[in-house]
Amino acid sequence: MSHPGFAAILKKIETEKEKFDAISKEVWRNPELRFEERHAHNLLADALEQEGFKVQRHYILPTAFRAEYPPDRSSERQVQVAVLCEYDALPAIGHACGHNLIAESSLAAGFAIKAALETDPSIKGKVIVIGTPAEEGGGGKNILIEGGAFINIDVALMAHPSPTDHLFPPFIGYKNLTVDYKGKAAHASGYPWEGINALDAVVACYNSLAFLRQQIKPTNRIHAIITKGGVIEGIIPEEAQMKIVFRAANLEDLKSLQEKVIACIFAAATSTGCEVMYNINERSYEHLLTNKELANTYKKHAEAMGVVFQDGDHRIIPFMASTDMGNVSHIVPSIHPTFSINTSAPNHSKAFTEAAGATAAQTPTLNAAKALALTGLEVLQSTELLNAVKRQFEEDIIAENIGSS
């Protein structure tokens, strides 16, 4: 680490760690659902402005932002490293996925890369901190992609808290849909033969999905909830609704699983005599393409701080979920490693919410921030590394296209 920027990164994060912790705790204490993250948006934007970033508030989305340093609009093409913040929470259980810590680690990384750039004005590069709302099912990054947020971005960096440290976490593709069954109301006791039970259709579909789960690949997932099942017990339900999520490790498997899920939906309609309509959310999540060159750079720095990655240990089950960072990774070389926050609690649980606000989460969060920042600085100062990252990205995209053809 001979470049003075490396020392500047470590010093900046250590010097400002109380500020980063305070911001994280403030986000954690005030959980906001997708597209409603006004307090977090203002809190993070204020901090970046105070640090000397040029901030665009309400960037494309009302609760997104874009912060750049240096703030000039030079006509000369510069290398642009983006670090992405998330800060939306979950209904009822708050920051059970630790997005307050994602916001903290990316904010700290952005501050630290800026400090490194200030030590060497000869680096023709820029750090961009992007606030990305609504990761929890809203596809905020998808909307930002559509709005042009990642044009000219060279790499995108982010890390995610979990019970384990994984360099290549298997974030898989994701689609969700709503299903609406229509039947016919009738007196449930007096004239049941006159009714068509929409609740039976939902239950039949749910059970079919449960049976299907036994026959799918280990990297596939299906989840469902019933959102409407009737009005009163004495009336045969004439309308019932459900929501379904299905996930797979690649596009081919996702398409195959979708066909099977839809077959379950229509089979339930046929067996009960109901009409059915379904709607697939167009903003699906793609599986994550972790850039190996970026990941190995991050690994080098994280391991120097004592992190032990568990990718090769098959006894450790990785955090298998889905993220709209997957969509970013298909257009920009990206990494999205997970970092342990000293808990065995699973994400999306009340216990993980508590862990995300605990003091024990701070050291691993700031270590992740340091590794992200050091990775970003290496990209900014090394044309050789950037070219290797881009070659790896092109190879990955070609392989993806061949696999899905």
Automatic annotation (TrEMBL):
NCBIfam families: amidohydrolases. Coiled coil: none annotated. It comes from the Eukaryota. SUPFAM superfamilies: Bacterial exopeptidase dimerisation domain, Zn-dependent exopeptidases. Belongs to the peptidase M20A family. InterPro entries: Amidohydrolase (IPR017439), Bact_exopeptidase_dim_dom (IPR036264), Peptidase_M20 (IPR002933), Peptidase_M20/M20A_hydrolases (IPR052030), Peptidase_M20_dimer (IPR011650), Xaa-Arg_dipeptidase (IPR017144). This is Peptidase M20 domain-containing protein 2. Residues 173-264 form the Peptidase M20 dimerisation domain.
